[in-house]
Specification:
By secondary structure, this protein is an alpha+beta fold. It is built from seven helices and ten strands. The longest helix has 20 residues, at 195-214. The radius of gyration is 20 Å and the shape is elongated. The protein binds zinc ion (ZN). Residues 247, 249-250, 252, 267, 269-270 line the site of zinc ion (ZN). The site of zinc ion has 7 residues, from loops.
Length: 272
């Protein structure tokens, strides 16, 4: 499942290619992605508009449109945006085509059909965005905010960090890596994190995400960049997916436990 760095990678690549291009036509081949919105309504909201800057909140992609509105997208498990040369017929996994004025097509492809697309006039009108916590790259996300928010909860630290209502965009892989780097156990209760440790956590969240973005994300299952290339961050993972391998810090075997139906990888010796 794409996490924040993968989505940020897609956002940056789309920003190099998309702004300024006008949407001539929208073709919906499978309407699941649109929720309850009728394909005709979705298409007519977008046709004739021009793509502006592409942004992000957590794992949501926010395509600015001119003269107004936003296309809000979530890739979920297997959603992808591909900017393609002129196309004649849709592939089986193509869900929506945005045909541009220069002949290119922005394709929304989604093998498993969990991805979502929505048109909104204003971002504060998006129900999905309203439920999200702070984005780790927003100015609201500070060490002081993190310390204060952690104090309010007795949830295990890993659950707390993965809850999208707290921080938008952190998922399993990166939370495992962040906790390893801070030496904190995924099982520690959130309120037991001191202000100094919260500052360390804040710093490592940025460090891990920054590094993953520089490496164009992590390709574990089938994340691909806009140009279909792989991410490279998987080569830098220190604990995720490394059950039984020696801890890079102390040599003890990396453990794997289940938390909320997800695998947690950590070192039982140096994460306390
Ligand atoms: Zn260790």
């Amino acid at each position: 499942m794409p996490e924040l760095p993968e989505v940020e990678t897609v956002v940056r690549e789309l920003n190099r290619a998309l702004p300024g291009h006008r949407i001539e036509k929208v073709d919906v081949f499978r309407k699941d992605a649109l929720g309850r919105v009728r394909p005709k309504v979705f298409a007519s909201a977008l046709q004739g508009k021009t793509f502006g800057k592409v942004g992000r909140h957590g794992k949501f992609l926010l395509f600015g449109l001119e003269p107004e509105g936003f296309l809000v997208a979530h890739l979920r498990m297997t959603g992808k945006f591909i900017l393609s040369a002129p196309l004649k017929a849709p592939d089986p996994h193509h869900r929506v085509w945005f045909s541009l004025e220069d002949g290119q097509t922005l394709v929304f492809q989604d093998m498993r059909c969990f991805g979502t697309l929505a048109y909104v006039d204003r971002l504060d009108a998006s129900a999905s965005l309203a439920k999200l916590g702070v984005d780790p790259y927003s100015k609201e996300f500070t060490a002081a905010w993190l310390a204060g928010a952690l104090k309010q909860s007795k949830t295990p630290l890993k659950h707390w960090l993965m809850d999208q209502k707290h921080i938008a965009g952190l998922g399993n892989i990166y939370v495992c890596e962040v906790l390893f780097r801070t030496g904190m156990s995924p099982l520690r209760r959130a309120h037991r994190v001191t202000a100094v440790q919260a500052a360390l956590l804040h710093r490592e969240i940025h460090a891990v995400l920054d590094q993953a973005i520089r490496k164009n994300g992590t390709t574990i299952s089938d994340f691909r960049r806009v140009d279909e290339k792989f991410g490279e961050f998987q080569e830098y993972l220190q604990v995720y997916g490394r059950e039984g391998e020696p801890c890079p810090r102390c040599g003890a075997p990396i453990l794997r436990i289940r938390q909320q139906q997800r695998s947690t990888f950590y070192c039982g010796k140096c994460q306390t």
